[in-house]
Amino acid sequence: MASYGLYTHIQSNKRRSIALLFGLFFLVYLLTYAGALLADAMSYDASLAWLLAKARYDFVLAAPWVTLGTAVWIVIAYYFHQTMIDAVTGGREVTRLEQPRLYNLLENLCISRGITMPKLKVMESDALNAFATGMNEKQYSVTVTSGLLYRLDDAELEAVLAHELTHIRNGDVRMLVIAVIIAGVISFFAELIVRGWFNSGLGGGRSRSSDSSSDRGKGGGGAAILIAVALVALAYVLSIIIRFALSRSREFLADAGSVELTKNPDAMISALRKIEGRGELNGATSAVMEMCVDNPREGFEDIFATHPPITARIAALVKFAGGHDPGPLALPGPAETENDATAPAEGTADRPAGGPWDPGGAGTGAAGKPFLPDRPPLDLGGASSDSPQSPPGPWSRRQQG
After folding, report:
1. Domain range for residue 235?
2. What is the 3-state secondary structure (H, E, C) of 309-378?
3. pTM greater than 0.85
4. What is the 8-class DSSP label of residue 89?
5. Of 62, 35, 9, 326, which Cα lies nearest the Cα of 188?
6. Residue 277 phi, psi (nearest 5)
7. What is the tens place of the pLDDT at every residue in 5-25?
8. Does 141 map to a domain?
9. Which one of 7, 82, 138, 252 has the largest count of C-beta atoms within 10 Å of its C-beta?
């Protein structure tokens, strides 16, 4: 069940992902051929065999330009995808001073596994969700919503961060970003072909060519158009299915990786229960939602859902990691947590009472202290000047005056 330990599963997952991505490139060329066939069917009154041969010839001429255009699209997305995502979500990078609780949790996880720490971002949203993005170590970032910060205790938040780090470590983030980029190319070409067909009057331009030849034959235009439309629809649907498969197959491993990092399956389970049904990011594109811990958007009868159901993920954690499912959790409304939102990084007001890090159950006081300091210790070598009773070392807690 543990993702980091099951390297054979990870490698197999990566091989399948690479194969799927090659399939996406194939779909781009399939769309190119379909577009050529549709254009020829609308331009020439010829037999189906002649139109198919003409479309193959046109495809060979267009393939280098299609390849170049797709490569340019990927390069642009490679360097600017994070900027585009931040523009959509409003995510902003935060430092240790701005979010000490969140920063310390992520840093501690990265140190424990020798992982290069990704950028840390927060987006203002009442939704409970998080996602990781990036193509390499210099670009990787983890974004969490402000709602997630307010509603999850330290252990649950740590579990979510470990989930996203697992996605990064396993290469899921890079593969998903590439798949979304290429699927975007396919959607663009498919829409371009369909718009061109409708704008031309649904085949009304056929027989415009004055060139005549006895070798062409006649009457194949209708069948060629049907084949072209079927190819466009097939490529588009397969691109969607491939994108969802890339995302959906990784969530169980990411949950397992979170448990191995934190050694706390109950924290991941309770985090999923709190996120359940509360993860919708208003204004976010479907591509962004596919990267999140949970995507509540579902298609027809769950066929097009990008994530396994929360209940299935929890059942796996209970079965293989020995976790305990508390069942659906009710959270207080926004009005009840309004005061907590004013200072999420100070004290423990934003952490629910009775969590794993609040053995006293009161949410405040000595029993409710978090296991990490509220802010970075300034004196790394000995006892702080304002707290002579505190033991020396980086984890000595400074007294708040």
Report:
1. 7-89+173-248
2. CHHHHHHHHHHHHCCCCCCCCCCCCHHHHCCHHHCCCCCCCCCCCCCCCCCCCCCCCHHHCCCCCCCCCC
3. no
4. H
5. 35
6. 75, 5
7. 456 656 766 777 677 777 777
8. no
9. 82
